[in-house]
Design a protein that fits this description.
Its main location: membrane. The chain is mostly helical. The protein is built from 21 helices and no strands.
Length: about 400
């Protein structure tokens, strides 16, 4: 194809320099006598000579003899040598294919969250810091609270709706405060991890002093919720702050930060019952708390597999690194322990039979997660992690129906 283009360019150049219409492959016969076309000169390349002959023959067949040299040039450029023609030896075609491959290899940007669409620009970094654009963490923190409040309700009665609302707001605030503390302590690590380098501190969108001020506002609002509970619940709730502030440091010292997160995230299993009953019943609440911790070890180990390569480079620890190729065996054991503890808690709380079919459905959901997750695929790990909101909903529905029917 490059030879064809070169031959066409040579024809047009000779036509302009010599001003000889006979160079055109279309002889002029309208009232004129055709003169023999002079030879365009020796062509050393046999392939180029053949292309010139072919062009001349085709043009005599397809164009009327009255066409001008300009028409011939148009014919060669637009018909015989179209710019979109692809040739395996064409450099431009290879470049286009390379560009197209590069475009296809770039993953599409995720859709804009409601934070980016609705909030003012100045407020977006704070909302991102509190993870308001990723509500899954709030759900995972709220479900143990809802389980505990519902199981503490009197038999045949609905749970306290005011308490459910207070604990829901508290979950948003406490999760946001935990994320702020985590990002403040990990800001030098987050900028080295692909998934976290766009966080507000790591990217420079917020300064540490702004983060501390925002943390103070979150804790102040949380205190307002805590003061509406009984005295026992206030002490119990305030003691959870020790876990919240120390959790981000655990990944530096132990391969079990996910277990420590379980202690922190499931504190609501203790607090919800205490807010309703004013005390703790170990036979019901301790199995419920244990179930939440084991559940956290399942979902957060799956989540940690997204960052295992970066964690190795940075030097932080996780159960994903601790379990390695045995991860599925470990989280299967934790999943079984979670379901068993939930069954024991429901039995001790004298929940009616509707609780157990829904607990079976929750167990099936957990088994589906563990059996189908591709631990080498970050996107699949994230999908399975996010699906745990449905596990929490199934357990909560079972407790509600079991309490109403008891």
């Amino acid at each position: 194809m490059a030879l064809l283009r070169a031959a066409a360019a040579a024809l047009r150049r000779r036509a302009r320099v010599a001003a000889l219409p006979a160079i055109s492959p279309f002889p002029h016969t309208h009232g004129q006598t055709s003169s023999p076309s002079p030879s365009p000169g020796p062509v050393s390349n046999p392939a180029a000579r053949r292309h010139l002959i072919t062009l001349s023959r085709r043009s005599r067949c397809l164009r009327p003899p009255s066409a001008s040299a300009a028409a011939s040039s148009h014919y060669i450029d637009r018909i015989l040598l179209p710019s979109s023609f692809s040739h395996p030896l064409s450099t431009s075609s290879r470049d286009k294919d390379t560009d197209r491959d590069k475009e296809e290899s770039i993953p599409p940007l995720p859709p804009a969250s409601w934070v980016e669409r609705l909030l003012p620009e100045a407020a977006r970094p704070y909302a991102m810091l509190a993870r308001l654009d990723k509500p899954i963490g709030t759900w995972l923190l709220a479900w143990p609270c809802m389980w505990s409040i519902t199981i503490a309700a009197m038999p045949g009665k609905l749970p306290d709706l005011k308490m459910l609302a207070l604990f829901g707001c508290g979950a948003v605030l406490l999760r946001g405060a935990g994320c702020t503390v985590n990002d403040l302590l990990d800001r030098d690590i987050d900028n080295k991890v692909e998934r976290t380098k766009s966080r507000p501190f790591a990217s420079g969108a917020l300064t540490p002093s702004q983060g501390v001020a925002f943390l103070g506002a979150q804790l102040l609002l949380g205190l307002g919720i805590l003061l509406q509970l009984n005295n026992f619940s206030r002490v119990l709730g305030a003691s959870s702050l020790l876990l919240v502030f120390s959790y981000p440091l655990m990944k530096r010292f132990t391969f079990w930060p996910q277990a420590y997160l379980g202690l922190t995230f499931n504190w609501g299993a203790l607090l919800g019952w205490a807010a309703i009953r004013g005390s703790l019943d170990p036979a019901i609440i301790l199995p419920l708390y244990t179930a939440g911790i084991c559940w956290t070890l399942v979902y957060d180990t799956i989540y940690a597999h997204q960052d295992k390569e970066d964690d190795l480079k940075v030097g932080v620890k996780s159960t994903a690194l601790r379990f390695g190729d045995s991860t599925k065996q470990w989280i299967s054991a934790f999943g079984a322990a979670s379901i068993g503890s939930l069954a024991l808690s429901g039995y001790n709380a004298e929940l009616a039979w509707p609780y157990y079919p829904l607990l079976t459905a929750a167990a099936a959901h957990l088994a589906w997660q563990i059996s189908t997750v591709d631990l080498s695929d970050r996107a699949d790990c994230n999908r399975k992690f996010v699906s745990n909101k449905w596990f929490g909903a199934l357990v909560s529905s079972g407790i509600l129906l079991g309490r109403l029917a008891s």
